[in-house]
Amino acid sequence: MSRSASSTATSSASSRVPTTDVSRLPGPAVHHWDWQLRAACRELGSTRFFHPAGERGEDREERDAAAKRVCAGCPVVEACLEHALRTREPFGVWGGKTEEERQAMRRPSRARRPATTAPKGQGGPGGPDRSATPGRPR
User: Fold this and answer.
1) Segment 32-38 long-range contacts (CB within 8 Å, at least 24 positions apart)
2) Per-residue pLDDT tens digits of the chain, which is 138 residues long
3) CA pseudo-torsion sign 117, 119, 123, 126
4) pTM of the model
């Protein structure tokens, strides 16, 4: 393949690769990232914290448990979790929480949601109160 043909093929192939959304990342200033220098996982590599494609069941539970043991003794676990929640890290164990646990933390629980109530006859979770509608059998 000629040089120009290969660069065209490369550029068209790379244009199909999705890019990472970095809009929620804090920026290049060192103070946003210096907590990572003190992280217990710093020298351990990522395989303990990020599951391979298709990993399920006991293997995944064991890997997550091993990652969480590292996090349990980490001096920056709170900063790590805060970063993961703020940036919505989609994968891996961050701050001692899996992606599923972090996702559940972001969802409002039913106990924290305000009750949806409306005055009688105005409707509410069950719809309008039809019991007082004239001409309607009860």
Assistant:
1) 35/76, 35/79, 35/80, 35/83, 36/76, 36/80, 38/75, 38/76
2) 444 444 444 444 445 655 666 666 655 555 667 889 999 999 999 999 999 998 999 999 999 999 999 999 999 999 999 999 998 999 999 999 999 999 999 887 655 555 555 455 554 454 444 444 455 444
3) positive
4) 0.57
Torsion sign across C-alpha atoms 5, 6, 12, 15: negative
Q: Please tell me whether residue 50 adopts helix, strand or coil conformation.
A: coil
Structure tokens at 97: 């929480």
3-state secondary structure (DSSP) of residue 97: strand
Partners of residue 94 on adjacent β-strands:
97
Helix axes 99-106, 77-87, angle to 10 degrees: 70
Rounded to whole angstroms, how far apart are CA atoms 32 and 26?
6
- Could you tell me the two tokens for 95? 């701050």
Token couple for 65: 């448990």
Cα 21 to chain centroid distance, Å, stands at: 13
- Two structure tokens written together for 111: 């106990």
